[in-house]
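Model the whole thing, not chain by chain.
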Amino acid sequence: MPPLHPALAFCTDYRLCNALGPDREQILRRLSLGQTGLHAPSFELPFGTYVGELSTELAPLPLPFAGYESRLARIGYALAAAMESSIHAALRRWGKRRVALVLATSTGGLSETECSHLGLGTGLPLPPGYGLLRTHGLGATLELLQQVLGTAGPAFVISTACSSSAKALASAQRLIQSGVADAVIAGGLDTLCQTTLFGFQALGILSTERCKPFATARNGINIGEGGALILLEREADSEIALLGCGESSDAYHLSAPDPEGHGAERAMRQALQQAQVSPHQVGYVNAHGTGTPQNDAAEALALARVFGMGPSVVSTKSYTGHLLGAAGATEAAFCIAALEQGQIPANLGADSEDSLGIRLGRETLQRDFKFALTNSFAFGGSNVSLLFGKVAR
Amino acid sequence: MKQIIGAPLHLAAIGFWQPTEGENAAPEANLLGARARGRASQLTLMFAEVLGQALAGSGINSEEVALIFGSALGEMERLIQLLTTLHGPTHDISPLRFQTSVHNASAGQISIALKNPNFSNSLAAGRNTVAMGFVEAAVWMHTRQTPLVLVLGDEAPPPELHVGSTYAPLAAAFAFLPEAIPAQPSATFQLVATPSASHNPEWADTPAIIGNPCRLLEPLVSWLRAGTMDRFELSSGGPTQYGIERR
């Protein structure tokens, strides 16, 4: 059996796009200024809510890849293009068979399937080029990026609803730890779809206003769209690494969290244990913090048991909306940025007092800290915690 | 050059289900309670059935096992039900159908049925879903070394979105132990990767699905049970060829 490598995976590049902007620089600037990307939708809905829409036009795929056209594929292609030089450097350094690709999505090409299905109902044929695997399939953008980037290592998509891309990063870490890959491009992509908006409305958890995670007056979530890719490598000059991952199941309910947060607590403690980091060393927790009364209460209980009033706990969903399958990687990227910049974003809409037994920052903080943890929880009781940190070189 | 992927896979039991010819019977899926069975999709029923077979055959503790599920297309039956409602007069989506339309709906329902608080995952990789399920399993066994069941399969395609041909649903489950099984020395396998001899750069760019994306499961199960060849190919056409070899 090949040797088992250390569990750490260095973060050598990361790229994002979401409602805060089309690129990393704009997104991080607006995050530091406390500016939300949530607005009333630009399209019609029979109910009121706010969404985190991408505000910039996504370029069509180049002609050779036009067969993969979808909104999701455009997001994936744009992020990969932004990261191209780092990926090519990793391919040169490690060889294409040693570079893996682990994407995540919950929607796949659902927005195109919605349009196609609507057309069928009015007597139209399927659009030319529509294919179940190539348009709708969760693996479609994966196949596209494999061809565009020229990677030849393992390539798969994790789809566990709202924890998908945090689990993609955990899978990426295992690929590196096992010696199967030396570098992994990992992340998540999701688009706004009618099915998810109407579905969360049917569950009664869409907020009619901008979401206010952890606030006493919180009343639901806002859905967003976008993506994040993170390049992880076995060795690098970077001082920031993914150090620990924890994954658990609630085994409680399909869509509601265990109200005591035991599964969430297990995931956080596993991540800390794998990283060999004590809770008091963690300076920043990017909470799952969706903004529903039940989810935030359960997560706060778990956070209070693990961390008490130690780290600053922030939900960035009040900036981007809930990016579903892309949330985990986006919020992991926010942790990496916070470690790089020594800056912790503010909770938007939080109460003036901490009432949940956790420290909820209301202002952007400048603080030097070494470890940050991000939580992602999902339908099916899927829990993931990722611990990032600065590694002494 | 051949690359060994992850840890050796010590196969303790297999589960397999496909409809009997001419019938479209739902699998029994006794692992789920009656209420959960009643609201489960066909994919979840298939997965629960083969997982139940693999757990029973291996003796692995169902409350402690790690679970990896893989399906190229996931909960298509549920999705079509949702879209039909969404595009109907009321748009009145059922919350239950929405919850059970996500790719990891089976993982969630099964972890609840088994009272299993441990790791589970749910993946897809188009035509390579079977091969990538084995990659994730071999890497899990290398890094975590706990009993694991890998569950793979796909439903039949929705006819309205897959015009002109159809294929049968099928699913299989593979129970792996972290240690070799003394009574079954032939039950140890190794996942390997080799550069593809006939790599077609446009291998994935084929619009039609030819058969179930997980159709390899049937010959794979036959090979694992009785095959005489040393190696079974899990993928073809891509830049890297994945195979499973008998040790």
